[in-house]
Each structure stands twice: as structure tokens, then as C-alpha cells.
What we know:
This is 1,4-beta-D-glucan glucohydrolase. By secondary structure, the protein is α/β, with parallel strands linked by helices.
Amino acid sequence: MSKHHHAGASRAPLRPLSLLVVALAMVAGGSAMPGASEAAEASSSPDAKASAVADPGQWPAMKSPLAVDPALERRIKALLAKMSVEEKVGQLVQGDIASLTPDDVRKYRLGSALAGGNSDPGNDYHATAAQWVALADELYRASMDTRGGHNAIPLLFGIDAVHGHNNLVGATLFPHNIGLGATRDPELMREIAVATAVELRVTGLDWTFAPTLAVPQDDRWGRTYEGYSENPEVVASYAGPLIEGLQGKVGGKDFLSPRHVIATAKHFLGDGGTHDGRDTGDTQVSETVLRDTHGAGYAPALQAGAQAVMASFSSWNGAKMHGNQSLLTGVLKQRMGFDGFVVGDWNAQGQLPGCTTTDCPDAINAGMDMIMAPDTWRGYYESTLKHVKAGRIPMARLDDAVTRILRVKMRAGLFEAGLPSKRALSGQAALLGDPKHRAVARRAVRESLVLLKNQGQLLPLDPKGRILVAGDGADDIGKQSGGWTLTWQGTGLKASDFPGAQSIWAGIQEQVKAAGGGTELSVEGRYSQKPDVAIVVFGEDPYAEFQGDIKTVAYKPASTQDLALLKRLKSEGIKVVAVFLSGRPLWVNREINASDAFVAAWLPGSEGGGIADVLLRGANGKAAHDFRGKLPYSWPRDAVQTPLNVGQANYSPQFAYGYGLTYADKGDLASLSEEPGVDLGANQSDRFFERGALIKGWRLRTTAQDAATSELTRPIESRNVGVSVSAVDHKAQEDAWRFKWTGPGLSKVALVPAQPLDLGRETNGDALLLLTLRRESDVAPDARFFVECGEGCSGSVAVGAQLAALPLDTWTRVGVPLKCFQAANASMGRLTVVPGIEAQAGTQLSISEVGYGTTADRLLECGP
Length: 864
Ligand code: BGC
Ligand code: BGC
């Protein structure tokens, strides 16, 4: 294989075969089966028969790398024999620290707690290591409290340390996995995992929900960056070192020692294959593809001794993973010999047919051992207890689940470890963001950068010259770190949230200054003295699950601000280096054409200096570090080229998987096509009403108190009952509608979609219903926003007082969590009205935009 592939060059299709086969052969003590790769199908091939029941015989036969320890098994049995049914059920239930107290742990004997992406001690994301340790102590003490005749069983405390210990202010933030995938450096994964485990232990935590072994196939998925690569070989090659780095080596003295933590291989299985890249969606592939593409990381992870596996939110051929007995029990536990425990994902049990978040025996019966019931743990505990007593969950299944959890706790030495604060690394705050860890992270940044274009070998730059640094990503550590950073979505952060970290700008400035050159920062690209060259840092704003799902792979289809900046600088005769921050490859041909050099920098994290290390020449005039990164995902040639994966038929990307220039390469690129393949402006259907128009096929319905209705698609005042509608101006002529409730009494206006609309996924993802409105009258307290979902189905939220509190005659974008409507009994999967407004005669509102999204000027509460 040549060092890199030129733009657009196709390469020999890679068979998604794999290390899985190799690992299987190793386990079996044989050699890789010849012809195995031929049997593997391309991941895009249609399904012959879409069954959701796996045949375990098709999967690798494996044994746990940890030999059965008879003494430990006896100890588990003895403890189990002393446990009450209540205690056993408690072990299966995991609550979130935002919704549970140490007293709850004491009373319900819960086996585990987690800290979700937005959960911190005292609800403060600035909580210190000492505060985390103190909370860990309290939870532990509660779990060990034997008053009332209880058994002392230490609680497991888990968190998403997915790019370093990312919930902690001051921790080292490693590049997100997509960037690590570009390094092709499995041993670096080990070092990162070792450092992450140490930082976790400083804060009293024993368990991380990582690594993600997803093999993302459709880059519209908002979790693409959590996967190392679209190529299962990369994921498989990383899985072992990651698990060993986190947990220590099986058989070695450091295995699950106090410097290590329990790891979680997630999300089992097929998370990266979800259809159209929809979060928590359906993976429609054959069993072969499920095994060889999506399952590739699991054999090596299990072989390295992974003690926990997290089940996926998603489905395989229509059946939710949390209920898939053939995969959870038949394949994972029986065939592949997994003897640790399977934990659920965030309230995912509620998505099984016939289940709710607080009641789901089927998940346990399918083979789930621990249920992540963040805010629903109490209800889940109670229903599970009832089901066990009624025999709906067999005692043997309960005992098996508890046995698995106790086995992991004992292997991790938790019964002997004592108070979290007394453990080896606890409270050593200096290890959080330890310079040694930061050095590993900085190296990872250097290795992750992928050079796509270097016209006239513009790079590396001379630090003795004048360099302008521009773009909204230049000096924004939150933006360069992406989602799962201090908060779940990584949004709303400021520079002071990142002590010890370095922005990309700061890294450049440091080295240019030291070399005696001149540099200037201007987000808008203004300068006091004409620079020799500009480095423009721009890209995606932070996002995580669901909220990051997009409809095409176009970069910011609605905004050309960055492009305009690149073009202006060039037109002023300045050479431009683009540094692109993103959680996935995106169609940026226009931006590439407008730049002399283009670097895919992914989401580098806290060590922005790693960028300057590669972009600038060192003291001897040569680049101190060359580019080494190779594309871990294929780069699209237009905005609709997805799914796009190496090995698929008619593979024709803009930049092939594995592409990446070095300084030895010429780096010139002919002008790329600027044809997006889709109307970029037309793809914003998260708006139901904007620019004075409804979505095609949608109608507006008004309903008077006497139930008379009228419908319209344009604002024609005279035609309606109950509410009159006319056109007004917000930002442009007649881009908004004015609603005047004419009465008598309460009447309604409602947006009616052409087809029932499914906002289930958006609701699950904490999206908001958004209305940009202007209050033009008083609003009585009984005004309500509502949705309808078919005959007899609706949900409404009281908003009168909240609207009345808005400034008069001022445009405000208000947001109401979609979850409010769900809590008010609406079925968010089939909305027939979204939204409606009910108000008293005399109310007057103008509205310029209705839709859903994540940011509002004014967040409304669910209300009574
Ligand atoms: C995510 C998991 C994560 C869990 C706990 C879920 O929504 O899918 O990856 O581990 O939340 O935060
Ligand atoms: C939590 C995340 C979780 C998500 C799932 C958030 O509130 O902080 O950890 O993954 O909800 O919906």
C-alpha cells in the first residue's frame, strides 16, 4: 500500500474482514481461515434476509481470558446466599447522581451510580477533585452500611471519560476518537488510556463508559467522532490496547489495580450502522456485516479482559438491542465467553416494545445485567422487585446478573479497597491535567492532523514571519474540544473553564514569539499590519448525541461566513492555511478551493499547541514534526455522498480513506467541484414555519370555542374563526404572521403537518420546541402550547405567565423542552399538531419562526 492516496484516487477495495477473524484464530489457537474475507460482505450490500435473531454459531467461539477462580466464585455464592431479593434487585439498578442521594443508595442497596454528561457533585461542573472524592465516599459508605442487617456491597461509580476525564475542569482532554483514528497508533491508545485511568482515580471513580467501539458508517450521525474509524480494522487494532490501558493487563500485577479502572466496550452492537445516521435508530445489515464490521472491536476487547459491555440504544433489523437475547446472551455471553456484566444505556429500556423506563422485565430476561435508570431508578427497582416475586423474571436470571456484577466488583478489589478517599491516587489533584498526560495528548494532536492540500508547499510556515490567526475556532478551547466536554453537549463553556489548557492560537503565538516573528489574533481576520500568511481556524460547533445528527454532509449549509473570510483574505493577497475543526468529514470543497493549505484537525482537545508543532518550522528551519495522520473516514465529494465507506462498490470519495499528505509530498490540488449535489438552502426542515411560509403540505388550523374550525396555508385575515391571521414583518417583508385571538373565550391556532411527524428521537435528545415570537398584548395565565398525536392523544404546557413575562413588542426565541409535552402524555412519535397555541380573546402574538432545535433566548418550563 502506498503511503497515501491522491484525492479522488480509488483504491483496492478493502475487505471488511479482519482482526476479528485473526483474533478468533488466536483464541482457537489456529491460523486465520483462508477465504474468510471473501465471505465478508461489503457493509453497504442489501440484506438477503433481515432477521433480528442472531445465530451464535456464526460468531467467534471464545473463552474469558480470566480463568475461573474457584475461590472467588465460592465467595460470590456465599454472599449471594445471604442476600435478600431486595438486595439482589438493588445491585441491578444504576441511578444518576443528579437524581439520587447517598441515603437512597443506603435504603435501596443500589449497586451502582453514574454521573451523566451534565451531572456533577452539587450540580456544579466546576466541582473539584476533592468534591468528587467526597461524593464517592458518601456513596460508598452508604453501600457498605450494614445497619438493618444489610450486606456490605461496595457501589460502582461510573462516568463517561471518553476523551480523557472530560467532565472535570482541569483534566487532560485528549483528541476525540476520530482524531485518534487518524494516528493509526495503537500503542498511543494505551498511553492515553493509562493516563485517563489515573485521572479518574484521582477523583474517586472506578469505572468509565469507554471505549466506544462503534464503526460509524454514515457520517450524518452526531456520534461519528466517538468512533475511531469507519474501518473495522482500525477499531479492532485499538480495542485491546485501550482496554489494557484502562484496566491493566490480564494476568499482570496491575490488572484492575488502584491505578486502573473498569472499562466498558460500547455500544453493543451495531451502534455505528444506524440507518441514515439517525441516533438511537435501526441498523439494517446482515449478521455477517454486524459481526465483521460492527462487531470487529469486541473480540479483541473481550480478549483483553473488558469487564463491562454497554448495550446500544439502537436496533438491529428492527429489534432493540436491549431486548435482543440472541446477541446479549447467545452471542456475547455464551459464544464469546463474556463473564463480566452488561450495562444498559441511558433509559434505553424504555424503548423496548411493551416497556417503560420504569418497567421492563424483558431487558433483564434478554440478558441485561444492570439497567442505567438515571432518574427512573426507583420505579425501575420497584417494578423489577415485583417481577422477580411474581416469577416474571426467573430467580436464576437475577442470580446470574448479580453474580456477574459481584464478580467484577471482587476482581476490581472493591471489597478490600476501603473508602475512595483512602485509595492510592485519590485527591492527588496535581495528577489531573498532569504535564505528562498533557504531553501525551499533545503528541496525539500532532499525530492526528491530516493534511489535505498544501499548494506550492506553503506549509510549514516560517515562525519568524508575520502570521495572522483568524476564525472563530482560533481561540476557543470549548470549540476545539467538541461534545462530552464539561457538559454533555460541550456547549456554553468559556475560556476560564479550561485551566492549564491551550487554545490553537495560544500555541501558535507561543512559538512565533519565541522565534522572533510577529503574530496577531482576529476572529474576523482584520489586521493592523499586513501578514505574510493567515491561519484560519473554523469548523463545527460542539455537539453530542442526537443533537449532532445532520441531514447532509455539507458543512454548515446555512452559513457561508467562514468561506467569505477565507475568500476575503485571499483577495487581499494573503496566503491562507485552513485548520478545520470537525467531528466528521464534511463537504468543504468551496473552503478547500479558497485555501492554499487545508488541515483536518478533528477535535483536538485541550492541547492546542500540537497544531503549531506541525504547522511551523523549528529552529533549524525545518518542520519539527511532519504530518502523520491518515484519514480514518472517507471524505465526501458532495453533500449527499453518505454512507461513504472504504470497500464499498463504486467507491469514489473526494479523499480516500487513508489519504494524508506529508511534507515530502507536492500537495498541489486542482480546483474541486463546488457542486453540492443538493439544494443546500432547502435542507433545513427542522423549521415548520419560516420566512412567512409553512412547509409544503402543512396547514394552519384555527379552532373557535364552539369547535368550529378553519384552515389556511397563507395569512388571509378574513377567513378564520377564533383567531385571525395576517402578515407582518420581522427581518424581511411579510416574513412573520400575526395572530389575534378574537374569541369568544379560549380559541386555538395549530400547525398541522402533511403527515404525522415523528419527533421521538428529538424528544429523547432533549431538543426544544422553538418559536420566535413577539408579544403584542397581555397574555392570560391560562394560555397553553400543545401538541396532538391522533384521536384522544395530546399534551399541553401552561405558558401564559411565562409569555406574559416576555418584554412587550420584542422578538424573542422561546424554547420549550419537547419532553414537557411527552410528560404531559403526548406520543411524540406521531404528531398531528405541532405546535398549537390556545389563548383568551384579546391575546396578540406575532411569530416569525417555528421549529425545533437546541438554543433559545428564553427557556420556558414545563409548568403545571
Ligand atoms: C450514551 C452513552 C453514555 C450514557 C451515560 C448515553 O446517552 O449513549 O454513551 O455512556 O449516556 O452518559
Ligand atoms: C446526560 C447524558 C446522557 C443524556 C441522554 C443527558 O442529560 O447528561 O449523560 O447521555 O442525557 O439523553
